[in-house]
Amino acid sequence: MDSAAPVAVSAMPQGNQGPKANHGSTPREDQIAALVKRRNASNAVAGGIMFAAAASSVAITCGIVAMLTLESLPFFREVNLWDFLTDTMWAPLFAAPRYGILPLIAGTFVTTLVALAIALPIGTIIAVYLSEFAPHTVREVIKPATELLSAVPTIVFGYFALQVVTPALQTFIPDLPTFNMLSAGIVMGIMIIPYVSSLSEDALRAVPMLLREGSYGMGASRMQTAFKVVIPSAISGLAAAYILGISRAIGETMIVAVAAGMQPNLTLDPRQPAETITAYIVQVSLGDVEHGTVAFHSIFAAGATLFVLTLGLNVFGHYLRKRYRKAY
Amino acid sequence: MSVEAQFAQPRPGNTVLTGNTAPLGNTAPHQRPHMTEASKPASPQLPPLKAHAKKLSFFYGTHQALHAIDLPLVDMHVTALIGPSGCGKSTFLRCFNRIHDLYPNTRYDGEIILYPSAANIISRDVDPIEMRMRIGMVFQKPNPFPKSIFENVAYGLRLKGIRNATELKDRVETALKSTAIWEEVKNRLNKSAYDLSGGQQQRLCIARAVAAEPEMLLMDEPCSALDPIASGKIEDLIRELRKKYAVLIVTHNMQQASRASDYTAFMYMGKLVEFGATTDIFTNPKSKETEDYVTGRFG
Ligand SMILES: Nc1ncnc2c1ncn2[C@@H]1O[C@H](COP(=O)(O)OP(=O)(O)OP(=O)(O)O)[C@@H](O)[C@H]1O
Ligand SMILES: [Mg+2]
Description:
The complex is a heterodimer. Chain A has a single domain (83-324), classed as MetI-like (MetI-like fold, Orthogonal Bundle). Chain A is built from 13 helices and two strands, in the order αααββαααααααααα. Chain A has helices at 4-17, 26-78, 81-86, 102-133, 136-149, 154-172, 181-205, 209-217, 222-233, 235-251, 254-259, 277-286, 294-324; strands at residues 90-91, 98-99. Chain A has a two-stranded antiparallel sheet with strand order 1-2. In chain A, helix 1 (4-17) packs antiparallel against helix 2 (26-78). The two termini of chain A are 36 Å apart. Chain B has a single domain (3-22, 32-294), classed as Rossmann fold (3-Layer(aba) Sandwich). Helix content of chain B is 34%, strand content 23%. Chain B has helices at residues 3-8, 24-27, 89-95, 128-134, 149-159, 165-178, 182-185, 198-211, 228-241, 254-260, 278-283, 288-294; strands at 16-17, 49-60, 63-74, 78-82, 106-114, 119-120, 135-138, 216-220, 246-250, 263-268, 271-277. In chain B, the strands form two sheets. Chain B has a seven-stranded mixed β-sheet, sandwiched between helices. In chain B, strands 3-2-5-6 form a four-stranded antiparallel β-sheet, with helices on one face. The two termini of chain B are 36 Å apart. The interface between A and B is medium-sized, with 24 and 26 residues. Adenosine-5'-triphosphate (ATP) is lined by residues 60, 63, 65, 83, 85-91 of chain B.
């Protein structure tokens, strides 16, 4: 690959020094042909490496799908798919086990919703402030500070929820149980804020200055420009940021495992304790469930459900991006 | 210093005023109906001014991009700004609606007086938002907002607080008609402005500026991204617009400057070299640099 550069450099002066029209252009053409040949060869090598990198990510995805399918097959031999999707109880470790995924989906759904109610508005406000309002000096301080949040390990957030946020919430909601989805969801939302704000800010900054100047030039204020022109222009990037935030919330494990309680509970009330799909998976993985049992294979069924949920979300996000893509 | 005095005396620096100013009035055959007290010609030779840059300097940080520019803008006429790339044309134009305020470390010096009120546009006491509502701007590249065609044109009207649906509709229609794009868009007013061609988008942006009924229109190379037919349409439009506004236009196209403008200012290295009636600048320039530039021998 590196050989192309020296050839290009040495070939050019020779071509320029040589007599021009007198000798005809053959030597020069030969040189260019050789150059092009080398270029093409190095392009092919580089292209191959990049293709391999891209292909490996596809291969890993395929591998994960295959593993989830193969490992959850034994589960679905024992448990009817319909029961799995409609039974309202999840009790795989009971003497008379019940395998209804709905309580886990409800737990995931409620904690995610609470987290998004925190992360999307706050993340967007921070992004709009940083990109449209903040003076340069303020941005230099706030941006790294928010990004520091994402350096905090999630287990720390989990205990923060349990030890700080839940007691604080209990002063407002006296009968709030120690383990509850509200506290876990709020802290999960705080954890996601930097992801949402940083990607949203990138999306807002990508809006060309020319559009802002057009709006300010008409006599718009900062607020009007931000909300009427910049945000609508960045809508597809904002949607991508939100989808990433949602995926993070659905996939988050530690905070909910620590703070939401590990009790499958079919409820939409965030004050209740519950278990999410991810929390169930760690619970079983860390426990002493025997390999090869239905209970063991249930974690793959739960994992496959999670995969389908996030895949659906990503497809939806892809559709949104296409739909709102603007050529500014 | 009165406008008369400005023109009667030889100018400082190397600025040359082309010809005598007497024929200027004759080069503008059209009527100027809205003549107010303050904007009446201070001198019999001079049409009333819309704005007057006086000793205008501008700094990007420590880099001085404009050096004490004195340039009158005659009301209801087109003034073209010409000059080699990087000479400060855009910088000068953008002073008029305080767009530079959006960027840190910029500084104005001097005055831009806007008639008839005689307010100094670049004074700290003047609200830039008010100035931007009064002075419209059209950019080099079309920059429609991510909104429908209708909402694009209604943008400035809504900013001015107009909510009445019939009034909005009427004024949008008037603006689109006056920019000769109405026939092309009247059946798709609710479609996205991004569906229009580049030339249509640029006329839409002019309609957007015109709909807000500014007192003056700034145009920074409005045709540079367009093909000859689309730019021809915009040139026609500029000739129409000067019946109502003072227009200041930056152009690199000498034919366009000579066809569409009444006055021409030649800038070089942040200084105004020569200002005068367009016919004089192109046929009888006083300065050697101007002559070289307009004849294409500039190097
Ligand atoms: N944002 C900026 N920061 C610093 N210097 C700038 C900035 N914008 C322009 N300049 C400088 O100011 C001078 C004038 O630039 P300006 O854009 O006004 O030129 P112009 O006459 O419009 O050129 P063109 O015909 O290429 O558009 C140039 O020397 C340029 O490098
Ligand atoms: Mg320019």
